[in-house]
Design a protein that fits this description.
Number of strands: 20
Largest sheet: 6 strands, mixed
Shape: globular
Helix content: 40-55%
Radius of gyration: 28 Å
Strand content: 5-15%
Distance between the termini: 47 Å
Length: 726
Amino acid sequence: MCEELFEIATTIFEKDPLFPQAFARFLYIVLHKFDEAEHQARAAIVCDPQNSFLRDTLGQIHRKHLRTHMKKRSPIAKFLDVAQLAIKAFRDGEDAAESEQDPNTSNAQSKNVSHAFNCSGLCGYIQVANIIFDTLTSFNQKWRGVLTGEESILVLPKAEDVLDYEDLIVKLQVNVERKHAFFEKYLIYSKPSRYKSEPSHIQRDVDMCCSKYLLQHSKPASSCHSIMDRSFPGLFSCLDRGYCSYFLERITEHTRKKHEEQMSEVNAAMNYVLSNIVLSNKDETSQVLRTLTDLRGILWRFVEKIYQSPEFFLLVLLLFWLNEPQHQHLHFKVDLNSIVENMKTAFDQKYKKYFRSRYLRPLFFLGQDTGLKRLVHSWKVHSVHTKHRKNPKQKRKTWANLDWGNNQLWKDSDIQNLLLRVRGVFKKQQLFAYVEDKEIAIYSDQAFVSYQGPASFFLGFTIKGPVAYDIKFEQDGEGAHVDKFMESKEDLVCRAAAILCKNHNPVTLNPVTCLTVRFTAAPGSYVCTVTGLRWESSIEVELEYCWSNWELVSEVLEREQYHPGGPLLDITVIRGTLNAVHLPHFLCLGSESPLSDAVRVFHDEDVGASFETCSLSRFHAKLLQPTFSPKAVCFVDNMNELTQKVRLVSPIADDLKPLIGDEKYSIIRGCATPQEQMRTLYSFLEGVPKLKVKFYESLQKNEPLIVEQLQRNRQSSGFTSDSGKL
């Protein structure tokens, strides 16, 4: 019955790739009909040849088929036939992903865009390489030497039977090495979002593939590596991997010898410097450690080179950022502002394409100590934070899934005693850090748009540059925040009067030092004296909000020909719903509002941006019944389209079951058709923002092509999404 429905749908909507793609997934996942699934997947690719997600589906079909042959112990030639198909499909998917553009760039083509880099082709290749290694070595252990480059394919019994696959076999190790290098940076420098971590199987698959193909196991091969040979991100991750001090000392000595053998090589110098920093965070008394001055001297010889990597500039900032007496640094003078600018340029050239829409992790922080001990690895921050925690949930927090924007983290007295609070200032929507008599432009984890004046913060360093965390603002004599956003005292008086008159004596919130405000509010009207944000609710709500930075979305505004008219706020309604929200603006409207038709509320999230009409008053833009659940609202308008196209409703219902309960889950599963299941499921989403978020995440996982198509449809009509940044 389902096959017949799919066949009818693919015939009626012959130019829509969603239907053959969904049909292909049904055939290979449910029915294990791999040839028919391949046919449907190729039909989908014909409809949209540039779509990397379609090519990934084809690769997944061959990967599943390959596992079937592995379990059956099929003949090697038959197994390698399917392996070739899987490798080619994933490499084609990787090439398509490389060609896809960020929709927020000015030169993006509407039909070839993706909000995030699709690494499924790279990941699929790694998984297939693991299957090939395990299967072939299970036939004969001589395959191990062949796959690692230690032996020729001719050492195999009946080698003539596999000579046709020599090109595939010989290139496996080289390609695995390249993809391993990508994932080392991708998984260590970034994660999907501030709140979301990478699925653990990706790191596990990458590590297993590296161990099989790249590490020396028996006699040395020129193409294999010693366990001591580590890349820059590989060295950085040593602490999170739990290596002991003795092993880290061996690595440090190994990098020293490499540096002495290659004195002119910047990468060898960088690895030696980094290994010292990593070791000092594990054992500050180690006898193999060099001094901070020594390491500065090693790096100084390369500072004047025209082009360097983001990793190099990261080390320069760490070693030369002054927080010690000036007389200790007379021999080395570095223009930190230039280094910060060069680091961003290098990041944009090397990583921006791949890390778009992802959250950049802090790698190091400035500490209160002196010398090399002042460079605090972010793993150490995590270790200090969780060391004495008794709450099981807190104990389960790893470095990989730590939320660096969580205020509770920075309130930890152990962390406050470990890290240095740096002085700085906000000027013209830009945050600066003071270094001696200079102001160094830095990023902020959340930026205050309207605030002008002194601030302090913990200074971290991502692969893009220096970032401020836990920003606190200087207070006036009465302990309240100094708000220099308005130009005159009359403006402040008028603003306060307008809020009181319009809001029926709202509850006034006075957040003193928190960058991010999060609390539970009873039904009523509220106003925040720092941000100017107002809202109304008839039920209890829990929400979180903070400033964000217009610079992050400047390309979108320029392309759509809009200009900022107020601060950019990141708002999340965690529980409950709002009747209305009033967003502050600084437009000069007078008593009338002639600009109302030209003013829009900007929404931004990982999946795109959109502009919404609003009611405009003298000081605020009003939205009725706003929803700030990230990535949820954009699909409310597409209910009919989703109902018709989504076929894998059962896996989505499985994901939602912990939130909707057994009764609603049974109702969904009891529906006769996918359309009925989808309509019923959709009815349970109403008024539950957290459930909408989970629904979207599950939809992305189970029906990624539908999500991609909806995003493209919205882009072509001028709108791409709605979410929680305003």
